[in-house]
Amino acid sequence: MKLQITIATSEQEFDRIAAWRIIGELLNNPKSVIGLSTGQTTQNMHAIVSDIYKLYPFDVSSVTLFGVDEVTNVSREYDGACYTMLRKQLIDTLGIRPENFIMPPTLSDDFEKECRLFQDELEKIGGVDLQILGVGTNGHLGFNQPGTPFESETWLSEMDEVLEARIRKETHTPSGKKLRGLTLGIKNIMHARKILLVAKGSSKAEIVKKMLEGTVTANVPASVLQLHLNCEFLLDSEAASLLTGNI
Ligand code: GLP
Questions:
Q1: What is the position in ligand 1's atom list of the atom closest to the CA of 159?
Q2: How many Å apart are CA 111 and CA 134, to the nearest integer?
């Protein structure tokens, strides 16, 4: 099966295409359920969706938005918590009601229960119409690090060391306290009806090559997307620079 790959010629074009995939989904299906991702890659596209919405408001009252993952054991109000990032970048501008923004909590005595609740809530509303995903330089999807089984369901994962160290420093979390990532599992991600994987910049070129032209393996979680029947890979020319076309 041929993979659906879109290569934008500039970062601006990349951000615009990604933003319009989200707006298109919102306009086509006013009851859509859309999974968002945080990070450098998605920031501008959220800003463009917000700008377009401010200029030309449309009905988003029945849309449900959620984040694919969340940091745990930090305050939800911390600027690096996915909840706060998404609220600031998109949710508040669109005026999404709290009941239509599904996020697991960052603090809990029972994260296994929170994982189940998060997953159940998404299933109850009929599953995911569009899932936006970034990819880590090690191939992680959400917080599913290399080695995560493809049949994994919503769970509490280790974070990559660099991100964990950054969050620990920013939140002044003592070294004894674990920071983890609550994330949809690979199986849940693969159940989305449509997926948009976004990767930009030269730092992503190597992993993009492995994801698209390498073997499908749990060592590169994002490679599983080669098996999804409705996944678009949106890249900029830098992220696509190592592709040979031998897929
Ligand atoms: C983080 C998030 C992922 C995100 C990824 C890519 O670890 N948990 O959901 O997709 O990093 O981030 P960036 O776009 O900053 O490279």
A1: 7
A2: 24
Maximum CA pair distance of the chain? 49
State the pLDDT at residue 245: 82
**Low-confidence residues in the chain, pLDDT < 70:** 246-247
Q: Which residue has the tokens 């599953």?
A: 127
- HSE on the CB side for 201, CA within 13 Å? 9
Domain boundaries of the chain, sorted by first residue = 4-236
Residue 197 Cβ inside 6 Å of ligand 1? The answer reads no
pLDDT at 117: 98
**Ligand 1 centroid to residue 134 C-alpha, Å:** 5
Q: Indicate whether residue 142 lines ligand 1 (CB < 6 A).
A: yes
% residues pLDDT > 90 (the chain): 94
Query: What's the whole-number average pLDDT of the chain?
Result: 96
CA-based nearest residue to 184, from 109, 117, 98, 126: 117
- 3-state DSSP helix/strand/coil percent for the chain, to nearest 5? 40, 15, 45
Indicate the pairing of strand 181-183 with strand 195-199.
Answer: unpaired
Q: Which atom of ligand 1 is nearest to the CA of 41?
A: 14
- Identify the pLDDT of residue 246: 66
Residue with structure tokens 């089984």?
149
Residue range 4-236 in CATH 3.40.50.1360: yes
Query: Cα-flanking dihedrals φ and ψ of residue 227, to 5°?
Result: -90, -10
